Amino acid sequence: MARVRVAACQINTVVGDLDGNARRILDSLGEAERGGADLAVFPELTVTGYPPEDLLDRPAFIVDNQAVFAAIAAATGTCAAVVGYVDTDATGRLVNAAALCVGGEVLGTYHKRLLPNYGVFDEQRWFAPGEGPTVRYLVAGVPVGVTICEDMWFAGGPMADQSGAGARLLVNLNASPYSRGRRAQRLAVLGQRVAETGCPIVYVNQVGGQDELVFDGASLVIDAGGTVVAAAHQFAEEVMLVDLEVDDAGAGDGGARADGSGLVVVSGGPRQAGTAPIVNRSATELGEDEEVYEALVLGTRDYLRKNDFSDAVIGLSGGIDSSLVAAIAVDALGPEHVHGVAMPSRYSSGGSVTDAAALAANLGVDLAMVSIEDAHRAFSVTLAPLLGAEPTGLTDENLQSRIRGVLLMALSNANGWIVLTTGNKSEMATGYSTLYGDSAGGFAVIKDVPKTLVYALCRYRNERAGSEVIPDTVLTKAPSAELRPDQRDDESLPPYDVLDPVVAGYVEGDRSAEDLIAAGYDREAVARVIGLVDRAEYKRRQMPPGVRISAKAFGKDRRMPITNHYRVPVPATPASSPAPNGEARAVV
User: Fold this and answer.
1) Is 497 exposed, middle or buried (0-12, 13-18, 19+ CB in 10 A)?
2) Strand order in the sheet with 366-369
3) Which of 172, 461, 464, 506 is deepest in the core (most CB within 10 A)?
4) What are phi and psi of 245, to 5 degrees?
5) Is-contact 479 488, C-beta < 8 A?
6) For the chain, how far is it from start to end, CA to CA, in angstroms?
7) Is pLDDT at 581 greater than 60 in this prediction?
8) Residues 6+ apart with CB under 8 A from 308
9) How many domains is the chain partitioned into structurally?
10) How far apart are alpha carbons 450 and 293 in whole angstroms?
């Protein structure tokens, strides 16, 4: 047996920030060196950040990425580093690469073989699959195989090839986006690969927000028996040092060289020989609500930070959605960088105004109070000649929402603040929002959070604080847009505890109406929800990006045509059952 010390370098890269990413890599490599690591493993495409998307269509970007990688390789010392970057193969095609560098040299490069092309992934758009012989590296007396992300997810794939060729330790570079339940899926797959190969696996994932994606880190080290021996924190940068006892299979020694069997010898023995083993530690696994909340905080913080916004402004209605967004923004940015605006109308309840004020005080954010009554009146008078009368009904409701959007965007323009919208996934799915009104803004924090989960996250936030940060009155009052007298959301939509499971089944699970009804969901609710979801596609295309926390979010995950005459058939209502009501018209 040989002991190898591995550093899982879970870092937060920025897409396109080649020089900045190089600094992050070398800083973490220096920490690994000081910790006595033999091998430092970085995330997928560390140099470019992930996903670089159509930056890969720019030849200059490819050349610059390769030059920065070469500079990183030249700066390596005695600790070997596995770094991800964009390479070209022998035919000039782009490949997703991971190179092992040590002592200022590149000793070998691996090209990702399995390219994901589903969900948020489009790697076949840019990359060619890797080819060529399996390369192993002898690190601290241990034969090591290198793979990248998707290469891990399939039986009989590159990991099996490498273990079959003699690798005794497998390292896997990742840019695996967070979604609910994803950590458990990774653990299950890693367990399968350990059982298949008989090798311990070092799984290193990036951390941080990139547009609507958020990466949770949660890097893992699994021993040959399938036990998790170390787990990095979620949603935080970390250089995790781990000592592993690995079967060396009688591997040779010597200086850095390549032998005829495809084995590249990196070092003959562990650099930390003679030192006491470190104690491998695992971060505490987060609870379900805590995990989602931290994803939203990190995704919001990084979207603003990486796009040079220091401050955010939020319309505080006294409702539960804007309350949650404000709490997330404060935890992401600090209260001094969050600005609330309450914009009551003639239909706003007194409780809504006092709830908004209480929330702002509890969070420590400044709150401006401005009535929209004068603007509402002026617009009504101005529109009367065009409409033949002052606006009523849906026109008047949407007018109020758009006035609020104008005020928030004016504050954004004047102060350089980004507007955080407050719509949730239930509203996004059904089109229950106003174009250029409550949907106007730069980032939609909870666009992938269904309404029922909004309540759970608010309760979690209060439990964490040990106090009513979000007033209890916000949690207990009936949801309402307050755009007409005594308005309630459930007058236009099914109750959220009915709506949300149907949306999840139809949108995230691609289940048919027949399947949903057979599963026990109300026939009328299924028909209503599917109709609303299908008709709202044009609205969703115009919404700002927001944090993805589900297995299928609106945006990159789900790409439905706007012009689309296919309608999901709903089984006929049995004669013994009442006919479904007409469709409720969603707010436009």
Assistant:
1) exposed
2) 366-369, 338-342, 312-315, 418-421, 443-444
3) 172
4) -90, 120
5) yes
6) 67
7) no
8) none
9) 2
10) 13
> Which one is catalytic: 44, 150, 482, 508?
44
Taking the C-alpha atoms of residue 249 and residue 586, their distance in angstroms, rounded to an integer, is: 66
252 plus 309 within the same structural domain = no
Single-letter residue type at 348: S
Q: Which two tokens stand for residue 99?
A: 């190179």
Catalytic residue chosen out of the listed positions 149, 199, 458, 552: 149
Mean pLDDT of 323-333: 98
Phi, psi of 221 (to 5 degrees): -125, 125
Same domain, 219 and 304: no
Please name the amino acid found at residue 31: E
Annotated active-site residue 306? The verdict is no
Query: What are the angstrom distances between the C-alpha of 120 and each of 53, 137, 177, 443, 537?
Result: 11, 32, 9, 18, 18
Q: What is the pLDDT of residues 59-68, one digit of tens each?
A: 999 999 999 9
| CB proximity list for 349: less than 8 A, separation 6 or greater | 318, 482
Candidates 130, 132, 133; CA nearest to 115 is 130
User: What's the chain's length in residues?
Assistant: 588
Active-site position among 79, 101, 112, 306: 112
CATH number of the domain where residue 169 is located: 3.60.110.10
Residues 251 and 126 in one domain: yes
Which one is predicted more confidently, 570 or 455?
A: 455
Of 247, 272, 297, the one marking the end of a domain is: 272
Spatial separation of the C-alpha atoms in residues 498 and 529, rounded to whole Å:
10
Residues near 118 by beta carbon (within 8 Å), at least 6 away in sequence: none
> Is 167 in the same domain as 221?
yes
Q: Which of 2-6, 245-249, 463-467, 468-472 has the lowest mean pLDDT?
A: 245-249
Euclidean distance between CA atoms 362 and 435, whole angstroms: 31
Compute the distance between CA of residue 537 and CA of residue 515 in angstroms, rounded to an integer. 22
pLDDT tens digits along 66-120: 999 999 999 999 999 999 999 999 999 999 999 999 999 999 999 999 898 888 8
Domain shared by 457 and 336, yes or no: yes
| 44 catalytic residue (yes or no) | yes
Single-letter code of the amino acid located at 359: L
Q: At what angle do helices 18-34 and 59-74 cross, to 10 degrees?
A: 20
Q: Are strands 220-222 and 201-205 parallel, antiparallel or unpaired?
A: antiparallel
Count the neighbouring beta carbons within 10 Å of the beta carbon of residue 16: 16
Nearest CA among 517, 314, 343 for reference residue 419: 314
The pLDDT, as a whole number, for residue 370 is 95
- The one-letter code for the residue type at 54 is D
Give residue-wise pLDDT tens across range 407-439: 999 999 999 999 999 999 999 999 999 999 999
Residue ranges making up the domain that contains 296: 289-487
